[in-house]
Specification:
single chain, mainly alpha, 8 helices, about 80% helix
Length: about 180
Amino acid sequence: MRKTVLTFGLLSGTVLSLLMLATIPFHDRIGFERGMIVGYTTMIIAALFVYFGVRSYRDNVNGGTVSFVRALGVGLLISLVATVMYVATWELAKDKIAPNYIEEYEAHMVEKAKSSGKSQAEIDKEIADMQKWMEMYRNPVVAIAFTFLEPLPVALLASLVSAAALRRRRREDGAIA
């Protein structure tokens, strides 16, 4: 199982990392809203390796059968490897490639709040909340935790769908069901 998890986790993580690195230089042209769409699309593409990894485990390691729980475990481990690569890449990239990214994002969110048409009190509250969030994000442990949470919904969904689609048991007569 270790070889399957590492192989497909590293493939998924490589896709996540390379596509992140390819788009960071263009974040000013892509924009923050479209950047989120691009980012999550990348995560969905990378999550395909969860499916293929679980299928590979079932067919090549486990004799053509796998329970839902085991398939889910394999999918989650593949996702964990990919997510660790994603977090490591972001931590390096935000310091080396896009050192002003966080400040630019904060300025974008402040401008978005100001142009929202809300009352000044609501705008001031949003800005204060954003500044608190940004201050927390400057703590490396918090930044790593938040970054780890970004691909988590996609990884969980990919693992659940893969486990449900690929589970296959052996019947009592020995045939694969």
